Amino acid sequence: MAIKTILVSQPKPEGKKSPYFDLAEKYKLKIDFRSFIHVEGIGAQEFRTQKVDLNDHTGVILTSKNAVDHYFRIAEEMRFEVPDSMKYFCISEAVAYYLQKYVAYRKRKIFFGKQTIVDLIDVLKKHKKETFLLPCTDRLRDKIPTTLKDNKLSFRKAVLYRTVASDLSDLENVYYDMLVFYSPGGVESLMKNFPEFKQNDTVIAAFGPTTSKAIVDNKLRLDLHAPQPNAPSMTGAIENFVKSSKKGK
Length: 249
Description:
Elements (H helix, E strand, L loop, with lengths): L4 E4 L10 H9 L2 E4 L3 E5 L2 H5 L10 E4 L2 H13 L9 E4 L2 H6 L11 E3 L4 H10 L5 E6 L5 H8 L4 E11 L12 E4 L2 H10 L9 E5 L1 H9 L6 E3 L7 H14 L2
Parallel strand pairs: 1-2, 1-9, 4-5, 4-7, 5-6, 7-8, 9-10, 10-11
Antiparallel strand pairs: 3-8
């Protein structure tokens, strides 16, 4: 079947430039965006049950902008004044620059990797005497703490926010030719909102192996996945699929 309408289970990209916008224009597609999941912060009372003392840490490992926001939020709720001596180790340059929202940007105290925890390890090992705090979600990928443990780094995990399903009830009678997922949480949200969901002819696309697994585990048909050798991005994989579906008309 030809693909004409696509729903991407993520927020609409900021700005005017996005591969999705280019895709929509090139193939005359209607592409909508909708977050299937959202983040909720954990309050000070619940945080205390984890028995994490913010004073005990000299470095913070920040894996996302959400981690940045919720670290400073919980610090304020706990009346903890983050010392100027705190060192920040960010998963990417984008997260490092986002820190400017809360602290004066001093390169000697802010370090960053390319995109993954593995990229950050060499920097962390140069500061292995630090005691690290890892602010995170309740759905933290195992690879992050495992990598830190394997490299014998002293750290403490602190769950500061959780990922929850968004209310999608307004989509109950809306049909799309393709649904695009980027996380297992998005797939779970679909099934939580619509437990009687029938896939029928709807094409389901997934980015990453854990998302693909969640689709199969929920007994849905996985029609398209990325990255692929000929399409490292989700938009590239969708473009290939759209082109092949047009040929099959």
